[in-house]
Amino acid sequence: MEPEVGLHPDQGRVRLRTLVFIRWMAICGQTAALLIAHFGLGLELPLIAAFLVVLTSGALNVAQVATRPASSWLRNKEATMALAFDLIQISVLLSLTGGLTNPFSILILGPVTVSASILTRRSTICLSILAIVAVTADVFFYLPLPWPEGSFFLHSLYLYGLWAALVFTAIFLAVYVSSLTEEARSMGMALVASQMALAREQKLSALGGLAAAAAHELGSPLGTMLVVAKEMKEELPPDDIYLPDVELLISEILRCREILQNLAAWPEEDGGDPYNFMPIQSLVEAAVAPYEKLEIETVIKASAREDDGKNSSPEHTGPEHPMVERSPEILHSLGLFAQNAIQFAREKVDISLVWDKRTITLTIHDDGPGFDPQVLGRLGDPLLSNREYVQKNQAPKKLDRRKEEDGDHMGLGVFIATTLLSHTGGKVAYSNHETGGAVVQIVWPRHRLEVAAHPI
Fold it and tell me: What angle do CA 379, 385, 386 make, to 5 degrees?
């Protein structure tokens, strides 16, 4: 599964067809407005100069369609340049038809609006600055509209007010609307990454079940082959030249049977079947095991909380050990939190699992540098990373090792884990421990995770 085109910053954000269609609509509107104003309302406009400006947009459309497929994606820079051309074209056309006194002067913000919807914030800011420059130029350099009943004059104070309104609108589009668009785009990227991670975990979880099914289906044919081979061996004389071949065939069949028996036992041993039921502690251990390291001590403790608030051993007192379904969402999320804790830890990671009649609580605490206080309240948002804070507080040698293992990322991991756990009813809280290190606490309503007693 690959991310949708246009979600990644390095991919196209808008199709050429879209911008070409918008430009053709603008050309038709500009042409109609010029013809109606000149012939319908009797305004003596500089039609030749105005239509030359309109024709430049048409020429650009024709050139773009002729040089590349209309279905191709424009990268951010290409789309920004195209919208900048449209903005300048509208500004020049306004300067020939009354400047800001033209009722259609608001259309100069059209390219900025399109940019705020599909392009990066940086591109929108650049186009907003260009729009402010163009609006300012149209205040001072323009041909007045030739009204039929003599000259029409707007007070300079009104023009300056209109200029201020357009400028503040451009700033609003650059800051507020583009921020909403960036957030929506980041969320889209994060959700795609979540789907990819979950699909991968589900495929891995299904391997055990597929292996068991294959072993079951192939068991009968191999049994038949073994019976036939043994009968052939009994019928052959001891000195027959084919006897060694038959014995080799029997040994290979037995070897295949042994392999299939191991495959059939695999789901029971490691929980490969996604529909297996297991104690919650076993699920946590299965999620953490792939990321354990010899140099980092990882301790997992499980206990039941009694009604008086005291913890006790799960084997003796307190509520029964919760039996849960082997969930790919939980396995992936807990594995990610454990991996981060082990990578950031200096010596030890403590994982405590506590349950009572109402809740199941899992706490992961490492002795690393902890979370950056400046981003602590926003952990769980997409594209938010704790890397810079760790780089400042981690030893160089440790940092180099962690960086090699962790690689470049966009801060999607925590968001993915938080989103997946929320689907299972879990609430995730992030904090820094008073003695140092990061703390991740996950609390589930017990009834959301626990299943009826099921033989393991």
Answer: 85
What is the pLDDT at residue 264? 60
Give the model's pLDDT for residue 49: 93
Distances (CA, A) of 319 to 302, 310, 336: 12, 12, 28
- The mean pLDDT value of the chain amounts to 79
Beta bridge partners of 353: 302, 362
State which H helix or E strand residue 413 sits in: helix 412-423
Q: Chain centroid to CA 285: how far?
A: 27
CA–CA dist 339, 242 (Å, integer): 57
Distance from C-alpha of 43 to C-alpha of 456, rounded to nearest angstrom: 88
Instruction: Give the number of other CB atoms < 10 A from CB of residue 385.
Output: 17
Q: Provide mean pLDDT across the span 99-119.
A: 88
Quick check: helix, strand or coil at residue 213? Answer: helix
The dihedral formed by the CA atoms of 132, 137, 143 and 148, expressed in degrees to the nearest 10 = 40
- Nearest to 365, CA basis, from 452, 433, 280, 272: 433
Tens of pLDDT, residues 204-213: 556 555 666 6
**Per the structure block, which two tokens stand in for 196?**
């990819």
Q: Are 6 and 13 in contact (CB under 8 A)?
A: yes
**Buried residues in 327-339 as b, exposed as e (16+ CB within 10 A):** bbbbbbbbbbbbb
Residues 403, 440: Cα–Cα separation, whole Å: 21
| Topology (CATH) of 277-449 | Heat Shock Protein 90 (3.30.565)
Coil, helix or strand at residue 299: strand
* 3-class secondary-structure state, position 434: coil
What percent of the chain lies above the pLDDT cut of 90?
A: 23
Other CB atoms within a 10 A radius of the CB of residue 234 amount to: 8
pLDDT for residue 308 is more than 60? no
CA 134 to CA 42: how far, in whole Å?
Answer: 28
151 pLDDT band, cuts 50/70/90, is low
Q: Three-state DSSP class for 188?
A: helix
pLDDT of amino acid 98: 87
